[in-house]
Each structure stands twice: as C-alpha cells, then as structure tokens.
Amino acid sequence: MMSGTPHQPSDDRIAITGMGVLSPIGQGIEAFWSGLINGVSGITAIERFPTHDLRVRRGGEVKQLRGTLGLERPLPACRASQFLIHAATEATRMARLSEAVAAGGRVAVVIGSALGGIAEAERWHEQPGDLHALAGAPYDGPTRQLARWLDATGPVLTISTACASGATSLGLGADLLRAGAATAVVAGGMDVLCRFVMRGFNHLRSLTRDEMRPFDRRRKGLLLGEGAGVVVLERAQTARQRGIAPCGYLLGHASCADGAHITAPDPQGRGLEQSIRLALANAGVRSAEIEFISAHGTGTPLNDRMETQVFKQVLGARAYEVPVNSIKAHMGHTMGAAATLETIMCLLAWRYGQVPPTLNYGEPDPECDLPYVTGQARTYRPRLSLNTAAGFGGCNACLVLAGGE
Amino acid sequence: MGQEAHRVCYPPAGGVAVRGWGLLTGWGAGLQSLPTLPPVATQGQRLLPVATPDLASERLRRATRECLLGVAAVQAALDHSCLAPHEVAGARTALVYASASSYAAANWTFVTSETENALHFPYTAPSAVPAEVTIQFGITGPYLTLLSGANAGIEALWQATTLLTTAQCDRVLVLGVETFQECAELYATGRWLLGTPLLEAAACLVLERHPNLAAVRYRAAWGTRGLASLVAGEREGALASVYLCTPTAPAGQVAGHYLQAQWPDISLVLLHERLGFCLACAPLIALMLAVTAGQLEDVLLISQWWDAWALVRWPELSSQAGH
C-alpha cells in the first residue's frame, strides 16, 4: 500500500473492542474519563515508600486498589501484576472476551513496561527469602502473571521501549493479529512507582518541584506516575462476527530509533518524525486527514519543543489547525502505561465529543505555538488521531487511531 | 528525510534471507569457536563468561559491558556481511533487540548500591544496549526491544521478518545479548529456573528481504499443551531439523522426547547440550548453525520460557549458505 492511498479495506483493520484503566485519577474507564475532562489532578505526596532523601516527593500514586471488579481469585502479591489484572479485567469484560475464548479463540498477551518487575527486585532485596519476589523481578514477570490470570493460549510477549512501551505493545499486538498468531490480543502498558525509579530521576534532576506544565513557557520538568492501561485488539471482521461494536481502530503504528543520545531525545526529533511517517504509511492515512494529536508532552523543555517542531514538519501549515493535548499533568508520567492510557483517551474523546485539557498551562512559549487544548475540555470530536510517545534509549513510537462507528 | 512516508506493504510478501552474523560467546568469537560435541569440560561449571570487548572508544567510556558486547556483535555481523557501517545508517535499517538477562546487572547494581549516580541510571533501561548500537551506527529505522525471557529471540526473528516483508525497512539487525556474571549469585539462587552452565553471549544476525524465498512462519502458544499445539500445526511439508532451546535440561529432555516421538526421522538439536544455556541468544545461534549446515528442507527453531512456547519455521536455508 502506498502512502496517501485510501484507508485499508475495512475487514483488514484492527479493532479495539475493550479498554481498561487503572490510574491515579481513577480506576475504571468512567472515572478516568471524568477525571480527565474535569481537570482532576492525581499528583499527591508519595506515601507508599520513603522519599525523605529525594528532591521531589510527589507523583501520581494510586492510593488504593478498589475491589470494584469483583475478582474471584486472590491477586498476586506483585503490585505491577495487580495493576495489569485490574485493567485487563475491565477491558476483557467490555470485549466479552470469555465468549471468544469459549468459541475457541486464541488469546495473546503483549505488555510493555519501562520498569517491568523492578519493584519485585526491591522487595527481594529487602526480603531475600521470598522466592516469589525473585521470580517476579524479571521484566516479563507481570506479563506472565496476567497470562496465567487470563488463561491465555496464544503468544505472550513482553516489550520495553522505555516510556514508549505502551504504544509499541499495541503495535506488536496488531502485528500478531495480522500474522494470524492469535484471534484476540490483550495489549497495553504498565508501571509502578518505586524507590528505584524515583531515585533514578532524582539523580537526573529531570523532576520538577513545580507542577507539570506541558508546552508552557514555564515548564521545568516532569513528575512520575503509575498505572496500567489495557486494550483488547481483534480483527475488525472478527469483532463484527462476534457482534461487538469496536471502541475504535488501531489503523497504523511504528516504533523508530533516534540514534542520538542515551537519555535525551534527538533535538531534531528524527526518530519521532520517522515513527509518525511510518505509522501513517502503515495506516494508509495522509497527514492532512489527522484531526487530533495526543502528544507525549512530558513538560520537559527539550521534549515539548522537539515534538512541536516534528508536528509542524509532518503536518505542515495544518499543524496550526489540529488540536494537541498532553494528559500527563493530570497524573504524572506513567511511563510504560502512558501511551496506552493516551490511546484510550483518544477513543473516549471520539465517543464523548470532548478533548481533555492540558493541565497547568498558562504562559505560551514562542517555540511551542500549536493549538494546545488548555484550560477546560474542548467540545470537539476527532475521528482520526495521532498518539506519540518517546523514551530513554532514543525510543519513539506513534499510533494512528480512529474512533469507532 | 522526504515529506512522503515510506511504502508499507500489506499483506506481507516474500521471504527473508540471512546475509551474515556476528557472534561472541563464552566459548570465543564466531561459530567456529563453538564446541562440536557436548562439552565435558563444563561439568560443574555454573557460568561461561564472555570477555568484555575492548572498543577503545571515548564515546563508549561509560557504557556497560552488555552495551559493549552489543556494539561488538553488530560490528562483527557487519564485517561478516561485507557491509560498511555507513550502509546501515539511517531510516531503512531496523534494530530488533532480544534479551532475558542483559538488564539485570545494571538494575541490581542500582537497587543495591548506596553510591548510585546520574550516569548509571540510564543504563538500567533495557533499551540502553540497543540505544548504544543505534547511536554507534546511526540507525534511525524501526526499533524494538523484546524481553519475553528466552522466547525473545524467536519473537525478534518474527518481528524482523514482519518489518522486512511489509517493506518497512530494507535490512534488520537482530541482536541478542545475555550476561550473567554480575548477578551470578542471584542466578544461583534461582537455579530451578535456569540450567547450567549459563553461557554469556552476544549474537547479531543481518536479515534482508528476499522476494524469491518462501515466508518465514511464526507461531506461539501458552500453557501445558503449548508445545503440542505448535507441533500439531507443523505436520505438513518436509522438515530437516528442529533446534530446541529450553532454559533447563529437564525441560529440554521432556520436550526433546516429545519432538523425537512426533518426528522420528528428523535431526533434533538440543542447543544447551552443545553450548550451555544462553536464553534469547540460543535461537539466533541456532539459525546461524542451520544456515551453515545448508539444509535443503525447512528448519524449526523452538524455544520455551515458563509456560510459553514459540517457534519459527525457516524455509530454504540451503540457498542462503553462500552469503
């Protein structure tokens, strides 16, 4: 398929048939959406582990896992696995996945994470006798727990493209479906706050003592958060046959390298630009058709400037017409979960006809001069969206999303 | 960079050829360093470490051992493929990285250390190894890190073939790195998970699209009947060999007996018996061995990690032996 050709035939699309969220601003899709639209901040003092020696002691911490989902079995001890199971339970129920499994469907699991089971490694360090903690410490520990919970029978994959993981995992899930390796894929991203990552970012001095202010002239850095976002992917044809109305479609995806720096993004954004162009080509969508951009928008001086430049390069003059937001100021940068949560936000924006605001934006930056959605939610119904993400190691990813019918 | 996007082709078309490879292991450099028979010298040995490459690079002065191994394996693969570094620079080369263990040393050091610093933290990210490779060689194409334990190698081969056959790139470097030395005590504690000797390795394959070859097939399954369901789907067509990569010897024995019962006439290679346990690198090394063997019929690479099984069926390797 050449770039700019019409969309793929409808029966070749990848449908998103279920969505689940665990976030600092709400557990469950409805609470998450309400928090986004109403400008709720999930940033609080971190309570779950000591922070006395850190410059920044706040973040988007999930204070309590509510048992609203009525889970019949005891959850694993691993917090990351608990996050995944909560989000996946909501998503699989929405997709009525048990019916597909009963009909002989092969369910795959693809989870992306920036930290994997590192919190379990910390637990093992503190309690060396707990072999469960040791077994859960590898990156793929939480993914395996989720696969067991779901009684998956298809491929079970763990990926890490750092803070772009939640986008790359969805792309890989789409590839599994197109390869015929599964009939449904439970895909998403997850990360939990722990001393490991707080100490690391503390040393890098990339956390702000101020609020996160994506695209604002006063932006000084990010705050971290935790959470999980999970979606169910199926071929559109399969969903139709099952009588499921998709929440939306993953039309295209790509993950590309900067090849520039171990932590900082390429100032020219080469990897991000390449990801967007390749994802558009993968989707068979022209840049002129894009109606909304969910930006990575970390609130660091370099990232937001670079992303703005890249959007202008890809969209040209239309960049000044396409609304852009970042929802990271609501809940902190949830790392591996972020891009999946943002994907869900894009599809909810289409469903409800509203785009959540970029919190804490007040002073325009001449170098970040796009039409960011600020202040309050904007009444707007974007069908075709771009979702961009970037992370350590020069990882970049882009998803092209469409709202459901 | 042009204004229009690259061409992406669905459905995928054609096959994938192995252009060359680079290999560093606890046995030495290159395939020729690997033992030809099950080695007796390793009995009782828990770990076969690989020497840290001396890359004499100011840019890489802070890089960890696993990063240096990754860069060295890619350089060896380019040499073997008769490719200059500038030929892999840019957006048309992809890097797919696979590992079960390479992040452990940096992570564990950071967890346990009281003297951590800002320079160390970025290297705890598993993407640090492929990042150093992309920076070293100027790669800006498709980019992915797979960490599904020992199955990550098979998954990396599948993802590489997907990227090539959909024309998202022209060449893929499939890189695996496994290191154990820095966390030897941890691995000893978890000895029920991994067999010994653990073999440190850095393996890189250079793959290119080949329109005249048949498609590479990937399948994977989770659960107690995972292997049986995969085998049931591979009955048709002639098979030359099965290379089996498991993380423990008992798992290899059980799976090996099952496979031999299904295909009594094929050549079954239990990779750990010859090399030791090198997790995600094992399927990559198996593919190198299969290409070198020049077999006329299809080759199956199978790997296992906990309850997960994965395979790729690679056709027509004989035509690739003269790379």
Radius of gyration of chain B: 19 Å
Question: What structural class do the secondary elements of chain B suggest?
Answer: alpha/beta
The separation of the N and C termini of chain A measures: 24 Å
Q: What string, H for helix and E for strand, traces the elements of chain B in order?
A: EEEHEHHEHEHEEEHEHEHHEE
Largest sheet of chain B: 6 strands, mixed
Give a structural overview.
The complex is a heterodimer of chains A (405) and B (323). With 405 residues, chain A is α/β, with parallel strands linked by helices. Helices cover 33% and strands 20% of the residues of chain A. Chain A folds into 2 domains: 239 residues, Peroxisomal Thiolase, Chain A, domain 1 (3-Layer(aba) Sandwich), CATH 3.40.47.10; 155 residues, Peroxisomal Thiolase, Chain A, domain 1 (3-Layer(aba) Sandwich), CATH 3.40.47. Chain A contains 13 helices and 15 strands. In chain A, strands 1, 2, 5, 6, 7, 8, 9, 10, 11, 14 and 15 form an 11-stranded mixed sheet that branches. Chain A has a two-stranded antiparallel sheet with strand order 3-4. A two-stranded antiparallel sheet of chain A has the order 12-13. In chain A, helix 2 runs parallel beside helix 6, helix 7 crosses helix 13 and helix 10 packs across helix 11. Chain A is globular. Chain B folds into 2 domains: 196 residues, Thiolase/Chalcone synthase (Peroxisomal Thiolase, Chain A, domain 1, 3-Layer(aba) Sandwich), CATH 3.40.47.10; 104 residues, Thiolase/Chalcone synthase (Peroxisomal Thiolase, Chain A, domain 1, 3-Layer(aba) Sandwich), CATH 3.40.47.10. Chain B is built from 9 helices and 13 strands. Helix content of chain B is 29%, strand content 24%. Chain B is of the alpha/beta class. Chains A and B meet through helix 4, helix 5, helix 6, strand 6 and helix 7 of A and helix 2, helix 3, strand 5, helix 4 and strand 9 of B.
